[in-house]
C-alpha cells in the first residue's frame, strides 16, 4: 500500500501525520484547530484517503504555526506515499460546488512546487479559524510534496462554503492524480522518464 508517515517536532509544534492513498476515507485528526480537523475530514472522505493527524502546538498564541506545520507534514507524507510515481495519472482537475460556492482545483504531481491561489473569502474568520491560513496550508503542502496546484474560486459568498468547496475539490483532484492509469502499465508519467522532488 502507498503510505507516508511523518513526525515533525519544533519548539512551536509537535505533529504526526500518516496518509494512505489507497484507503477508504477514514479520518482520525486532532490538530487542536477544530475547523482544520473538519477540512481534513473532507480531504479524507472525498479523496478516499486514510488520514491520521495528531498535532499539539502553540495555539494559545494563534493557529498559524500548527496550521503551517500540519500542511508541511501532510505534503511530506504525500511525497513518501507517492514513491517513484510509477503508473499514476499525475494530473487532477475537479470543480466542487457547495450551495452558492464553486471552486475549481487543478494539480500536477510534477515534483515542482507552485501554488496559484485565487480565493476571495469575505470574512477574516470562520469560527475561530483565521481564513488567511487556508492559503498558507496549501502553500505548505505544495512546497513539501512538490505539487503544482492552482485554486480558483468561480462563485461564492459564504466563507465556510468557499473553504469547504476548496478542500472537496482538492480531495477529488488529488484522488484523480494519484489513481493508477492502467494504460501506463506502471511507467512514469513523464516524457523525461522521471518525476522527482529534487
Automatic annotation (TrEMBL):
<dbReference type="InterPro" id="IPR000807">
    <property type="entry name" value="ImidazoleglycerolP_deHydtase"/>
</dbReference>
<dbReference type="Pfam" id="PF00475">
    <property type="entry name" value="IGPD"/>
</dbReference>
<comment type="similarity">
    <text>Belongs to the imidazoleglycerol-phosphate dehydratase family.</text>
</comment>
<comment type="pathway">
    <text>Amino-acid biosynthesis; L-histidine biosynthesis; L-histidine from 5-phospho-alpha-D-ribose 1-diphosphate: step 6/9.</text>
</comment>
<keyword id="KW-0028">Amino-acid biosynthesis</keyword>
<keyword id="KW-0456">Lyase</keyword>
<dbReference type="GO" id="GO:0004424">
    <property type="term" value="F:imidazoleglycerol-phosphate dehydratase activity"/>
</dbReference>
<dbReference type="GO" id="GO:0000105">
    <property type="term" value="P:L-histidine biosynthetic process"/>
</dbReference>
<keyword id="KW-0368">Histidine biosynthesis</keyword>
<dbReference type="InterPro" id="IPR038494">
    <property type="entry name" value="IGPD_sf"/>
</dbReference>
<dbReference type="GO" id="GO:0009507">
    <property type="term" value="C:chloroplast"/>
</dbReference>
<dbReference type="InterPro" id="IPR020568">
    <property type="entry name" value="Ribosomal_Su5_D2-typ_SF"/>
</dbReference>
<dbReference type="InterPro" id="IPR020565">
    <property type="entry name" value="ImidazoleglycerP_deHydtase_CS"/>
</dbReference>
<protein>
    <recommendedName>
        <fullName>Imidazoleglycerol-phosphate dehydratase</fullName>
        <ecNumber>4.2.1.19</ecNumber>
    </recommendedName>
</protein>
Amino acid at each position: 500500500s502507498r503510505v507516508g508517515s511523518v513526525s515533525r517536532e519544533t519548539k512551536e509544534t509537535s505533529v504526526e501525520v500518516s496518509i494512505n492513498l489507497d484507503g477508504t476515507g477514514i479520518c482520525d485528526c486532532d490538530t487542536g484547530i477544530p475547523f482544520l480537523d473538519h477540512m481534513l475530514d473532507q480531504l479524507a472522505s472525498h479523496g478516499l484517503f486514510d488520514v491520521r493527524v495528531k498535532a499539539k502546538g502553540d495555539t494559545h498564541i494563534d493557529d498559524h504555526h500548527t496550521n503551517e506545520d500540519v500542511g508541511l507534514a501532510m505534503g511530506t507524507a504525500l511525497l513518501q506515499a507517492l514513491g517513484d510515481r510509477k503508473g499514476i495519472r499525475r494530473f487532477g482537475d475537479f470543480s466542487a460546488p457547495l450551495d452558492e460556492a464553486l471552486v475549481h482545483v487543478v494539480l500536477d504531481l510534477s515534483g515542482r512546487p507552485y501554488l496559484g491561489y485565487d480565493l476571495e473569502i469575505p470574512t477574516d474568520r470562520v469560527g475561530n479559524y483565521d481564513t488567511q491560513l487556508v492559503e498558507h496550508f496549501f502553500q505548505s503542502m505544495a512546497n513539501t510534496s512538490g505539487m503544482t496546484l492552482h485554486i480558483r474560486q468561480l462563485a461564492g459568498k459564504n466563507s465556510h462554503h468557499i473553504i469547504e468547496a476548496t478542500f472537496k475539490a482538492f480531495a477529488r483532484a488529488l484522488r484523480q492524480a494519484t489513481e493508477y492509469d492502467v494504460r501506463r502499465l506502471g511507467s512514469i508519467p513523464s516524457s523525461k522518464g522521471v518525476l522527482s522532488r529534487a
